[in-house]
Amino acid sequence: MKQRTDQIPTIWFIISSLLGTICLGIYVWGGIEGLTWKEVSELIPQTVSLFPESQNQIQSSIFLIRQHYYVQSIAPDLWPIMVGSIFGLAGLIMLGQFIQVWAKISKRQITLGLLLWCGILVWRNIDLTLNEWFNFLHGPWVLLACLSTGILTIICSSSIPTFLLEISHSPDKASSQKKFFGFILFYGVNLILSSGNLWNFWSSTLFIPAFIVFEISVALGMFQSLRFKDKSQQKLLRALFLLSHSVLIPFVWNNNEVGIHAIESWTIMTHLAMVLLFPLFLWTNFKEPIQENLAIFKVVHKAHFVPIYLIQIGIFILCVSWVFARQATAWHQIVAAYYNEQGDIEHFAGDRFMEELAYKNAMIHSKLNQKSNLSLARMSQEVGDVEKQAYYLQTSQIKHPEEKNFVALANIYGNENQWFESLFTLKKAHQLFPESPQIATQLSRVYEQIKQIDSAAYYLVLAKELAPQSTITWANLLYFDVRHGSKLVNMEELKSWSSSPDQAVKSNTLAKVWQNKQALPDNFTHEAFEAQLDVRDFALLYNSSLYFKGQSIIYPIQTWLKDPNWLQKFPEITFLDAWQDFYHQQPLRALNKLDLLVQKENESKAQVYRLLLQHWKQQLLAVKAKVQLENLAQARAAIQSYPFSVGILQQALPILHQANKHQEAYQASLAAVQWNEELAEFYPIYILEAFQQGEISYAEEAINRLRKSDPTLFQTQASAFAQAKEKAVNRQKF
């Protein structure tokens, strides 16, 4: 049992090391950003000849895809706060155990005191909901966690000098002293470089960031505490570690950078003070052992003349004075971080007013902190307040310029039709981030909007050079060639890109070869895909259906038409429905649908549809099918595919009558006459079918039309008409 108890400190050291490593990993990775890239695709109509292979010059629109970037604000995540709460609760329990041992209070007394205190809290706040309880307890927890972080930083500020003392110990005194002062000098220079960079005195990358120094010092402090015989000190370190990291986890994950900066500033101050005082502390307490070159690192915590805790108290007083001598920057930063954390909690509670108030309170203490500004920009974006959104984005740029912020601002100006403001914003961004393909893409779009086509082409090519594998740049270059007649894409690139599965690239590739009357590359894959409510999907299925005609894939357009979202986003789906019917053996249904569109659309579209309707009719009339029909299925299929073929009708209608499908036969003849009223050859077929159905008045009307349009044909069929009429009249007598 004792052996298991002795292993507890080691287990806790391993747990704390893992937790510290996780926080370091999130810090290096960067946590979630306040803004994220979103790809935006636009449908751009382009007029082409629908039948480039023939002499027919019917012009209609296909669709190009132009793509750019949209910047979306990101809400904070809840899980880091919940995980931090669990660690915070564990830290509070350990802190209570330490206080109970340190103050020599019995477990019964402290338990009763806590129960009484909790009972009073519950009684005074009995009406609070679970979310309100969490909000109520969250504030004190963050304050206690921040205070624990400050205390832990001071306690562990001696851990790195102690570690340097240990690794510098050598067989001879002179070598030990040289190594130790060399390490301390290197460590002090790193702290100075880090502080100068943190406080904007200079810009350098030749230093270890203060947050990493903090985690290293804490890990070393936890390791060195394994030597302590006093277990209460180990409990205190564990409690402070858990409490501090309970707030560090949401800070680093939700990018509460003002809190991280406050901790980094405090770490720099305490460690600089310790670097100055630690050699004096060693000489005061261990002068004789140092002269004897003994391993004093093992007994640093046992100093008798000037105990280490007195040095730590002195460092606390010195650093607090230093904080307020620097206009209390670190203090205001940690308070701003506290309000940011409160704003995140109010976001999950759904109280928008309190959320906005919390973030604005944070800005009172740190106006330029990015977390508050981006959070308020997100809230403004949600309600469509573009002026406030632009203000907060501009404010966040003052201290932390980022390419996403510039693009977000430029998009706001563009949406308000202030294209030159958008251009100036992106030009400034390009100076700061010349390697950004996103900014180059946005610049191309803005230049195109202000009709500077050469500049737009230049930045499109630049975007391709910066991101040669980006499908967005491929699609945009293809779009530009089709739209503006440029030659930015060579044949090798066209062949290479044709194998891309990206819908925008494939759609624009079709448009390019269509307009230029080129052969489609062999590696272009034309296969079925599950279309979503996305403009890229629609452009591809629309262009491919028009391009491949009868060889195109059959899409479930009838199912999509039942969804009002399809009609709202892509009204051209109705035309595509008619087109697909015509080229997939449903020509008569296609003609009817297109005729309805002619009546509903505006004049320009209606004119195109009229020309197409006439073309389809001529195409059907030009078909001279020579097939031998033998059964009902063949007859139906032939009428469906060739509704305006006299030979097919003459063969198929008798078969329908034999199968007692008289109404189908009549409807087939009627459709042929209705769509070809000017052609006399369909009238005899219809007249006989009308008499067969007993539609004597319609038949006589058709006879009169035939007599006027083609008297010769009428004379040859007159006796047949008379016999059919006589039979029809006789049938009606019964």
Automatic annotation (TrEMBL):
The keyword Transmembrane applies. It comes from the Bacteria. The chain crosses the membrane at residues 12-32, 78-98, 110-126, 141-168, 180-199, 205-223, 235-253, 265-284, 305-325. Keywords: Membrane, Transmembrane, Transmembrane helix. The keyword Heme does not apply. InterPro entries: TPR-like_helical_dom_sf. Gene3D superfamilies: Tetratricopeptide repeat domain. This is Uncharacterized protein. It comes from Aquirufa nivalisilvae.
